[in-house]
Write a sequence for this structure.
């Protein structure tokens, strides 16, 4: 029986890895390719999760919706909502240099979290939204888990292909140029504020989608899920460790960090009671230590940024 | 040599940084097809003047007319699209892009710069990309940098980066090119090559140049007219011989003592 439990756990982890990979890909567009320091991932994650929850859950008393719409519409809605929120934020904040942008986005994410936590009519505040439908959720547990894994893996695969296509194309080259030297990019005729906004919205939409997949997996969403430690900083560590500027690295980083993060939970669960309270901080410490080691010994991450515009693009056309 | 059409008119341009006046009522004209040399001691306001002409920031006072239109308030990227292109004194290469990519990113309005086109009409993107690549390879060839095409630009030498900056101006249909100290940090051999390239671009492609330079040999070979600036003002304008022999120019370079002695 032991191995069935392990297999179940592996499927569970794989689903989470796919969801986080979407956040990491989104951040890679913003930071890895465009140099935008978004420290408010949790905010876009939350907007996506709640939008899809409101759109797809059955009608409920005392909060907005639910509208009982099909799940795919909820997911598209999540991306659109995250993009719409990103637009004014980007308009205002992208004028700041990177460190100020980080502060501004932390602030924005916190505002979003507080709105969700306190606006009863909109999000049912601290009680959260329940009864979020899960595709194939009626199947027996194992099949339901496997079906959901298949769905999130396909969504991730499509998202990966879409991002890769952009990065290999002149769009990605232009973004990396803006990242490397903003003044020169402007002097070479590129509309830097507009392009940054584009990358910011593109990345945020993927984060919103990640949020939606998370909400449907758990069948419920509460403000506690929007913890910046888990939804923002963990994603940053995943990207830096995996290799900022490399999409495969971004996904690999998620897998490595998530496995270590989950394993550390198994270990800390074995600890005697008196240490249990400290365990959470030990895990955070462990992750921080890992980040330090990576930055010291392999700052480019496990898979560094590839060099040059992908040859595939121009070779085939010759 | 006959004067080409009037291309650039700088009219009583002023730039104040807080209480410091970096550019003080500068006026001059540039004619199409010419290579204007801008000289003057350090801190004379040459680079600030370049930044104003290129549109890095707006002037405190004064106006700039280019090809018959006032562009004083136009942003840098829009000036670029009208053929007004600059290079930087300190190389502004895209250091994590390869030398080839540094050039390939330049051409305006590439099909593949649109997110939608990359998803929906990739065939067209590939076509333009092939053309852009060919043009970039040609430019690298012209600058004799072909062997470094796939090297990260950050790894190039100072002189090679200067050449790459010049190369970027070749990737668009430039008309007026501002070169800020193209020879600084470039060794003698490379320097003569650079001179030659600038002359060819001027002759064969019809680029008009304004160039800031401290290397007087280069100024003498390439530039007519020469403008000497000091303390934010245009001191004198004329051919190289006239400017060099003017006592005010000597004074500006060597300081007050010469003036006192004279």
């Amino acid at each position: 029986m032991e191995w069935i439990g392990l297999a179940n756990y592996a499927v569970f982890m794989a689903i989470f890895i796919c969801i986080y990979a979407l956040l990491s890909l989104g951040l890679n567009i913003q930071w890895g390719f465009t140099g935008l320091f978004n420290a408010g991932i949790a905010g876009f994650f939350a907007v996506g999760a709640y939008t899809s929850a409101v759109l797809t859950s059955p009608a409920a008393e005392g909060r907005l919706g639910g509208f009982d719409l099909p799940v795919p519409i909820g997911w598209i809605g999540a991306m659109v909502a995250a993009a719409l929120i990103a637009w004014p934020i980007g308009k205002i904040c992208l004028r700041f240099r990177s460190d100020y942008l980080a502060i501004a986005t932390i602030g924005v994410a916190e505002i979003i979290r507080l709105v969700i936590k306190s606006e009863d009519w909109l999000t049912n505040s601290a009680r959260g939204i329940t009864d979020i439908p899960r595709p194939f959720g009626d199947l027996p547990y194992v099949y339901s888990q496997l079906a959901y894994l298949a769905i999130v893996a396909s969504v991730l695969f499509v998202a990966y292909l879409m991002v890769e296509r952009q990065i290999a194309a002149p769009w990605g080259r232009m973004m990396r140029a803006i990242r490397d030297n903003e003044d020169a990019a402007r002097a070479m005729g590129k509309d830097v504020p507009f392009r940054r906004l584009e990358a910011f919205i593109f990345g945020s939409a993927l984060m919103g989608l990640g949020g939606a997949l998370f909400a449907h997996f758990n069948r419920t969403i509460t403000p506690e899920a929007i913890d910046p430690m888990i939804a923002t900083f963990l994603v940053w560590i995943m990207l830096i460790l995996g290799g900022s500027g490399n999409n495969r690295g971004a996904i690999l980083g998620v897998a490595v960090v998530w496995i270590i993060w989950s394993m550390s939970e198994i270990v800390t669960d074995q600890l005697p009671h008196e240490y249990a309270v400290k365990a959470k901080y030990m895990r955070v410490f462990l992750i921080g230590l890992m980040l330090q080691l990576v930055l010291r010994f392999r700052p480019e991450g496990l898979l560094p940024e590839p060099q040059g515009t992908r040859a595939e693009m121009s070779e085939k056309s010759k | 040599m006959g004067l080409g059409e009037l291309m650039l008119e700088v009219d009583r341009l002023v730039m104040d940084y807080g209480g410091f006046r970096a550019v003080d009522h500068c006026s001059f004209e540039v004619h199409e097809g010419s290579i204007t040399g801008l000289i003057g001691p350090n801190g004379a306001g040459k680079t600030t003047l370049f930044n104003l002409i290129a549109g890095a920031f707006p002037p405190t006072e004064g106006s700039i007319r280019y090809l018959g239109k006032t562009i004083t308030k136009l942003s840098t990227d829009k000036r670029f699209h009208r053929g007004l292109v600059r290079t930087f004194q300190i190389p502004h290469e895209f250091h994590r892009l390869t030398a080839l990519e540094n050039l390939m990113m330049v051409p305006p309005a590439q099909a593949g710069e649109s997110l939608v086109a990359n998803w929906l009409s990739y065939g067209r993107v590939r076509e333009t990309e092939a053309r852009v690549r060919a043009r970039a390879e040609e430019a690298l060839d012209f600058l004799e940098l072909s062997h470094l095409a796939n090297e990260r630009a950050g790894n190039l030498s100072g002189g090679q980066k200067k050449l790459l900056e010049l190369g970027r101006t070749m990737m668009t249909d430039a008309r007026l090119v501002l070169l800020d100290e193209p020879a600084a940090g470039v060794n003698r051999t490379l320097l003569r090559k650079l001179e030659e390239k600038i002359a060819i671009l001027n002759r064969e492609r019809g680029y008009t140049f304004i160039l800031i330079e401290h290397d007087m040999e280069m100024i003498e070979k390439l530039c007519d007219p020469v403008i000497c600036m000091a303390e934010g003002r245009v001191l004198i304008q004329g051919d190289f011989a006239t400017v060099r022999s003017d006592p005010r120019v000597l004074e500006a370079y060597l300081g007050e003592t010469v003036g006192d002695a004279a």
Summary: Confidence is low (pLDDT under 50) at residues 257-262 of chain B. Chain B is about 40% helix and 25% strand. Chain B touches chain A at residues 54, 56, 75-77, 80-81, 85-86, 88, 92-98, 100-102, 104-106, 108, 110-115, 118-119, 122, 125-130, 132-133, 150, 152, 168, 172 (CB under 8 Å). The first helix of chain B runs from residue 46 to 54.
